Amino acid sequence: MADQLDTLLDEGRRFPPSAEFAANAVATQALYDAAARDRLAFWEEQARALDWMTPWTRVLDWKAPHARWFDGGQLNVAANCLDRHLSGPRRNKAAIIWEGEPGDRRVYTYWALAREVGRAANALKRLGVRKGDRVAIYLPMVPEAAIAMLACARIGAVHSVVFGGFSAESLRDRIQDATATVLITADGGYRRGQVLPLKRIADEAVADCPSIRHVVVVRRGHGGEGDESFAEMTEGRDHWWHRLLDKESPHCPPEAMDSEDLLFILYTSGTTGKPKGIVHSSGGYLTQAAATTKYVFDLREEDIFWCTADVGWVTGHSYVVYGPLANGATVLMYEGAPDWPERDRFWKLIARHGVTVFYTAPTAIRAFMKWGTSHPAAHDLSTLRLLGSVGEPINPEAWMWYHEHVGRGNCPIVDTWWQTETGGIMITALPGVTTTKPGSATTPFPGISVELVDTTGKPMAKGGGFLTLTEPWPGMLRTIYGDDARYQETYWSRFPGRYFAGDGAKVDDDGYWWLLGRVDDVLNVAGHRIGTMEVESALVDHPSVAEAAVVGKAHELKGQAIAAFVTVKEGVKPSAELRDDLREHVARKIGAIAKPDDILFSADLPKTRSGKIMRRLLKDIAEGRALGDTTTLADPNVVARLKEMYEDKE
Ligand code: 7RM
Q1: Is residue 5 in some structural domain?
Q2: Whole-number Å distance between alpha carbons of 67 and 63
Q3: How far is the CA of 406 from the centre of ligand 1 (A)?
Q4: pLDDT for position 222
Q5: How many domains does the chain have?
Q6: Is 238 close to ligand 1, i.e. is its CB under 6 Å away?
Q7: Does 109 have pLDDT greater than 60?
Q8: Ligand 1 atom having least distance to the Cα of 529
């Protein structure tokens, strides 16, 4: 952490907003001033931008660590994203412009989207889904993913979107934890020219999910209906999406939801093996998603806003679906990989659709850098006017490359820090207002109270420490589904009275925040959160494995890669085949994103005398550093041997 701090401190480049951008910016200094004067009044003002069926009676009810925002108020999130845009000129405006990986395209106007959502909502009702019931969504990046989410919101069902790259077991665990009654999936989805057989994976998951009564299958349409190679339909349980919707009326009255009624659950990795069901409610979440979209992305009526995140992640919830649609914006949605069929696919998409605001992740930017400047240079990116970054710290070199080769030197960059738990953006520049520094997320969004503390919890004005939040915010998680004790323990116990984000950070002399990554056992692989414990549990689940320790190691493109140290059971011979088998096993248990890059077999793991695996030392080994302090080890020789083996492994 010390090296990182020094390098960041040396970053002297400054990018003040251009006079032209500042003159027309949606955000102004007045926002900061208003929030500083009266935080709650500021958030009320943002909430008033939404349509409420019943006004709230109390802006915030805070019984730490439980918040109720806009209590007494009632609204419907889907009505806010659709119905209120239908009376004026937005009715015929594109809400979603979609492109599939093979190149197929679809456009939904607000009018058309509202009708599809109405049909889907009625179909869910017909399947017996009632207010408060959980619906699992396991789809590729197709418009139906957004339609399914909005249909749930319309009838007051709670959605739990599971990323399409997760395995059958991961899907099963999430369905079971939420006791979902309906699963919405697809026959398949495209990724790098291949069809991922989602329905088959879903069938495997659902075999162990007694709560599931119906499975709705979107036909992504390769083999066509009747082609059972990707979707075998179980009579009575399974239904084709298009057939169900065909029978339904497009009109479905929106359910009046209390501000604090659940909108969705989204599972995220923590320090233990069991993913946490992060619970978000309706009024506060939408208020923050909508306000941040408007101000952080300088949203204008004519924008084409492209957030490249999958809807399976929180970024896709807040900045593909809820934030932009609540603002009546046009979003671009793309199904596939950035390098399919060629490495210029993203630039082609930007040029073809005239994207004006582009929001992506550092891991993607680093891949683009590696692929070279010729790809963005070959396309007309002149429509771009604002760039965003999210998911992990953006290295100053990557920031500069993004600025020069994608932004062509004249697009502000907003580096946005936030989490699944925060629901919306928390630390960010406001374009037109904030002077940016490459690599810094800059300063808290108006109305957000962030404070740096040292290991004892003492506030620090600057220097290196831990990022905490001192006041509740509208989009905050309300609890962990079914486990409020874990909610309190995970977020509110390390520094009593404060929310602890799990991130290390530095604050400079100007009060700018520089994020330094996770300080707990959570890895950030290509912007995806993966718990070391989850991967260890998956490895130990293999019949040949006795013990496993997993660490993150610095990786050029992915930020972090996974390195695993594995002890095999008595009588098992380590081999290249076993290594491949273990990687596949992890992919089966969790998903391909969690496959370890390196697996080292070892007779022993470095342990303290109390038997704790010293992951810090394993990280030193994986990252090729000199070994740190080994004096607390039960047997210091183990780690020296491991280091030698690791270095010879290739
Ligand atoms: C939105 C999202 C959250 C974790 C968070 C950080 C890291 C996210 C940034 C960042 C530095 C950023 N949700 N993180 N954004 N670190 N700068 N702009 O990613 O729940 O999946 O992950 O991601 O460590 O705690 S998440």
Answers
A1: no
A2: 6
A3: 22
A4: 60
A5: 2
A6: no
A7: yes
A8: 21
